[in-house]
Amino acid sequence: MKKLIIIAICLSVVACSQPPVAPILNKPEILYFKATPDRITSGEATMLIWKAIGFTRIVMDADGFKMTEVTDFPLNEHGEQGAWVAPKKPTMFLLTAVGPGGIFTERVWVQVI
Q1: Domain 24-112 falls in which CATH fold?
Q2: C-alpha of 98 from chain center
Q3: What is the b/e burial string over 54-68, where b = at least 16 CB atoms within 10 angstroms of the residue's CB?
Q4: Beta sheet of 57-62, edge-to-edge order
Q5: Domain coordinates in residue numbering, the chain
Q6: How far apart are alpha carbons 33 and 89 in whole angstroms?
Q7: Which of 101, 110, 111 is nearest to 28 (CA)?
Q8: Which residues make Cβ contacts (< 8 Å) with residue 73, sequence separation at least 6?
Q9: Do 109 and 90 contact (CB within 8 A), yes or no?
Q10: What's the pTM value of the predicted model, to 2 decimals?
Q11: 51 vs 54: CA distance, rounded Å
Q12: Torsion of CA 30, 108, 40, 61, to 10 degrees
């Protein structure tokens, strides 16, 4: 019985002396980012649609200029977010998901003819 108690005490001391394990933080991910349609005539609009997970905020840029933080955009029944845009010239849209595990970026190109 004394051996069993000593072993139990030794095991609990070893377990308690280990440093705490840091939680694994998952990197946010943009599952897809698309423009529908991706080719428009000047004056028309297109819908940018994306689905992202693991983010705390999302930022959208157009040709390098910050447009808006889009975290407040409501989700549709498919878990997607979206925004109507009407660029006057061909434009590269950049969507960046930021979360505790890092950042993830996707791009979509809208042709304007």
Answers
A1: Immunoglobulin-like (2.60.40)
A2: 6
A3: bbeebbbbbeeeeee
A4: 39-40, 102-112, 91-99, 57-62, 65-69
A5: 24-112
A6: 20
A7: 101
A8: 81, 82, 83
A9: yes
A10: 0.73
A11: 11
A12: 90
CA–CA dist 92, 35 (Å, integer): 11
What is the 3-class SS of 78-102, one letter each residue?
CCCEEEEECCCCCEEEEEEEEECCE
3-class DSSP string for the chain? CHHHHHHHHHHHHHHHCCCCCCCCCCCCEEEEEEEECCEECCCCCEEEEEEEECCCEEEEEECCEEEEECCCCCCCCCCCEEEEECCCCCEEEEEEEEECCEEEEEEEEEEEC
- Encode pLDDT of 46-105 as tens digits: 999 999 999 988 889 998 777 766 555 677 888 898 888 899 999 999 999 999 999 999
